[in-house]
Structure formats: structure tokens, C-alpha cells
Design goal:
Layout: E1 5-9, E2 15-16, E3 32-36, E4 70-71, H1 76-82, E5 86-87, E6 91-95, H2 102-115, E7 120-124, H3 129-139, E8 146-150, H4 154-164, E9 168-172, H5 189-206, E10 209-214, H6 227-231, E11 234-239, E12 246-254, E13 262-268, E14 271-274, H7 278-283, E15 293-300, E16 303-315, E17 323-326, H8 330-344, E18 351-357, H9 369-381, E19 389-391, E20 394-395, E21 401-402, H10 407-416, E22 421-425, E23 442-446, H11 449-456
Parallel strand pairs: 6-10, 6-11, 7-8, 7-9, 9-10, 17-18, 19-22, 22-23
Antiparallel strand pairs: 1-2, 1-3, 4-5, 11-12, 12-13, 13-14, 15-16, 16-18, 20-21
Helix pairs in contact: 8-9, 9-11
Length: 458
């Protein structure tokens, strides 16, 4: 029989009979790879996802709501992101840059859960048993309930799961696992689909919790088909720079909890340590009496976090000034600069502008608009903002300061860290809203950016 091949997009799984530079489905460039079609006779024995007993239709009013058992991982920051712990029978996908700490965190989880009597199978397709043993020794892990398997063949992994019947399975990584039912190379769309489908089926039918480690591509997305993110129950992203000590784990999808929570860790020689108070850690080493610095309190899930925003402006001789943003939305920076130039007459068009959020934090909260604008103005005029002041507020195109959510929670966090002044939108203060008499910190309400400058630089 003559073999046939198709070109499959590694991002969305679109198939084409010929190679194309741009995928017609997801519009990504250079993502179509040639793959050999699987013989139908050979694939008859291949399993299908979620294979098992037939499930007849049942009336909704006769169903009982399940009481999912959550397993504490021993890491409060990870439990917070997962929604209170690891749900039995769930599948969690963890992704991040190489060397960010994915395997280290999972090994630490193994040590804690195994000591509580849970049986864990750690499947590694990238490291040898001696390498895993060295990491375990470094982290102080030595449990008889932790089993190590260095295997990439899916059928052998499934056999070992059936033999051990563990409570938790960790697959590091899913891109290295291959099935003999598919003739594609390991890491291809078909192989990732086959491996993840089989493992997810085991998790749902047997009640085994599974962690899948996923590689990332050059754009930071999870390598492999996009359908992988839809199949799993939770998707966690590890953020941070390998040269920096702090790591942030963020939930992108979670069927059993909120997607707004984050967990903060610090990488040390003994592994990843939790940072239960990120505000104090992010504000440590803050420079005093320097222009272009302003503190802000943002809400990440249910937790208020105080971060430091730094701005730098410098004269440019080029007709098009440079804009750089790290941790702050790039398009939002352009919007703020346009508002400051139009409403206040400040000439940012002749200056390069740089924004940096300390600690590797990425701010998506609109309440970071006002401190960012004040930092830019402070650096442009070379006038330092008060070190004991914090600013919170969203800026509109007319230059007005709009109200923010959870204002009382933000003010309480600023008060706890020793700030003596807080600039808030006027619509957050008053009757039926925030009562300044309940706080020792001085609350200064402002209507717009002009009022904020008068208060901050007076």
C-alpha cells in the first residue's frame, strides 16, 4: 500500500494535503509539519479517549452533586492556585520555560504527599534515575511511596500504572511520550493527542490525579495542539526569569477553582520556597528619594499585592521615540502617554519612555494606571514622589480617575505595610463607600490626573 502524508499545524491541528507557509485556521506562520497517515488496519486496536464502560443518559434531577476529595500538596501557594488542593481524578497541565522550576516543584510535592501515605508514580522521559535521585537528595526527599519510572513508551507507562495503581501520576513531559499506534515522531500533534487522551481516560475512569508537564514554544505558548489545553482540567503557567529568584505560578484554566489566583515562590539552592507575603518581598530594596518610582496595590484573585512601578524617560534625537514596557501592558502605556500629552501638555513625544514592574510581576489590573502615570510625570520633571505614598486608580481618556474594585482591601494592605498616604479615585470615597475615619492611613481622593499630580508633587 502506498503511504500517504499530510501537513498538520502544530498549533491548532489543521490538516492540509500540501505544505503552506501560513496556517489557514490559526494564521500562524511555519507551523505545518509533514506527518505520515496512520494505517486504518493498524489503528483499529488503538484506544479512544475516555474508553471504558458505556454511560447511559440520566435525568439531571436524579443526579447527586459529587463531593470531590482534595489532596493537599503541602504547598499553600500551589493549593491556592488549584482552588484548595489537588482534586482526585483531575488532570493538571503545568508549563513554563526550561529551567524555571517545574520538575523541582513537582518533586517537592511528591515528597510531601508520599509522606502522608499516598502512592506516587513519577514518569520521566527526559532524565535518568540517577539524575532524579540527585534532585531528590538535594530536596531531602526519600519516601518508600514514591516510584520512579524512566520511560517514553505509552503502553509501558499504562501497564505500570495498572500494576502499581498509584494515587498520583506525574508525566514529565507529555511531549516525550509516544504511542506505537501512531507513526508520527514524539512531540508531534498526533502523538501528544494520543498520549494525553490515554492518560486523561485513566484519570477519569480510575480516579487517579495526573500532572502533565508541557514544553513551551518560542512565543511562550504550550507546544503541541491547542486541544490539549481544552482536554485537561487545569492549566498552570510558570512565569519568571531564570536569572531572577522569584517565580510566579498562574492558573490559566481551572474547572475546580478560580483562574485569578497566583502563587509566588523563591528559587533557592534547596528548592522552591513559598513567599506567603509577596508585598514585603516585592517592596524590599526599594530606593528612597528617587524620581520615577511609585507603589501600587493590585488584586490578584483574592489577594492584594503591593508592587513597585519604575519609570524612566530620556531625551531622544530620533523622530520616533522608543517605548519599552516590562510587566505592564505595552498598548496601555501608549494610551497613558497620549492622555498625559493631550490633557496635561507634557512633551513625551520627544522622550524615550521605559516602564518596569519590580519582581517579574505582570500587572493587568486597571488600578495600575494612576501610579504608572505618576511615575512617568515624576521622572520627566525629575521630582521624586513621597516614599510613604501609594497610588491606586484607573485613568480614562479624558484624564479622569475612575473607581476601582476592592478599594478597602487595597487600603488595608497599604496600611499594614506602613504607608501613610494613599491616593484614591473620588468615587471610591464617601457615603456608602470607603470611610476614611476607619483607617489610620491618610486617604486623599482625586477626580483626575491633574488633581493627583497636585497631591503627589505638592
Amino acid at each position: 500500500m502506498k503511504t500517504k502524508s499530510v501537513y498538520v499545524c502544530t498549533e491548532c491541528g489543521y490538516q492540509s494535503a500540501k505544505w503552506l507557509g501560513k496556517c489557514p485556521s490559526c494564521s500562524e506562520w511555519n507551523t505545518l509539519e509533514e506527518q505520515v497517515l496512520v494505517d486504518e488496519k493498524k489503528s483499529k486496536g488503538a484506544s479512544t479517549p475516555y474508553s471504558g464502560k458505556s454511560s447511559p443518559a440520566v435525568q439531571l434531577n436524579k443526579l447527586e452533586a459529587p463531593d470531590y476529595m482534595r489532596i493537599k500538596t503541602g504547598t499553600d501557594e500551589l493549593d491556592r492556585v488549584l482552588g484548595g488542593g489537588l482534586v482526585s481524578g483531575s488532570v493538571v497541565l503545568i508549563s513554563g520555560e526550561p529551567g524555571i522550576g517545574k520538575s523541582t516543584l513537582l518533586m517537592q510535592i511528591c515528597g510531601t504527599i508520599a509522606d502522608e501515605g499516598k502512592k506516587i508514580l513519577y514518569v520521566s522521559g527526559e532524565e535518568s534515575p540517577s539524575q532524579l535521585k540527585m534532585r531528590a537528595n538535594r530536596l531531602g526527599i526519600n519516601s518508600e511511596n514514591l516510584y520512579i519510572q524512566t520511560e517514553t513508551n505509552l503502553d509501558r507507562i499504562v501497564e505500570e500504572i495498572s500494576r502499581l495503581n498509584p494515587d498520583i501520576v506525574i508525566a514529565d513531559s507529555v511531549q516525550t511520550i509516544y504511542s506505537e499506534n501512531s507513526s508520527s515522531m514524539p512531540g508531534s500533534v498526533n502523538q501528544v493527542k494520543e498520549a494525553s487522551s490515554r492518560l486523561i481516560g485513566i484519570a477519569k475512569n480510575e480516579g487517579i490525579s495526573i500532572f502533565l508537564v508541557g514544553h513551551v514554544n518560542k512565543d511562550g505558548g504550550i507546544a503541541g495542539p491547542k486541544v490539549l489545553e481544552h482536554m485537561v482540567d487545569a492549566v498552570l503557567h510558570f512565569e519568571g526569569e531564570r536569572d531572577h529568584a522569584y517565580r510566579i505560578i498562574r492558573s490559566v484554566k481551572n474547572r475546580f477553582g478560580s483562574t485569578n489566583e497566583i502563587g509566588v515562590f523563591e528559587m533557592t539552592s534547596e528548592g522552591l520556597n513559598e513567599v506567603p507575603n509577596p508585598s514585603e518581598a516585592l517592596m524590599a530594596g526599594r530606593p528612597k528619594n528617587v524620581s520615577g518610582n511609585c507603589a501600587v496595590c493590585v488584586i490578584e484573585g483574592t489577594r492584594p499585592i503591593i508592587a513597585e512601578i519604575q519609570a524612566l524617560t530620556s531625551m531622544t534625537v530620533f523622530p520616533s521615540p522608543k517605548r519599552t514596557s516590562n510587566g505592564f501592558d505595552y498598548n496601555r502605556l501608549y494610551l497613558l502617554l497620549a492622555v498625559l500629552e493631550k490633557r496635561l501638555g507634557l512633551r513625551f513625544s520627544t522622550h524615550d519612555a521605559y516602564i518596569n514592574v519590580i519582581g517579574g510581576l505582570r500587572l493587568s489590573d486597571p488600578a495600575a494606571d494612576l501610579p504608572t502615570a505618576l511615575s512617568l510625570i515624576s521622572c520627566l520633571k525629575d521630582k521624586p514622589l513621597p516614599d510613604d505614598m501609594i497610588a491606586i486608580g484607573e485613568i480614562g481618556l479624558a484624564g479622569e480617575c475612575r473607581a476601582v474594585a476592592a478599594a478597602e482591601q487595597r487600603v488595608r494592605e497599604a496600611e499594614r505595610l506602613g504607608f501613610s498616604r494613599v491616593i484614591l479615585p473620588e468615587r471610591n470615597v464617601g457615603k456608602g463607600k470607603l470611610d476614611p475615619s476607619k483607617f489610620t492611613i491618610k486617604i486623599e481622593p482625586v477626580k483626575g490626573i491633574f488633581d493627583a499630580i497636585s497631591v503627589a508633587l505638592k
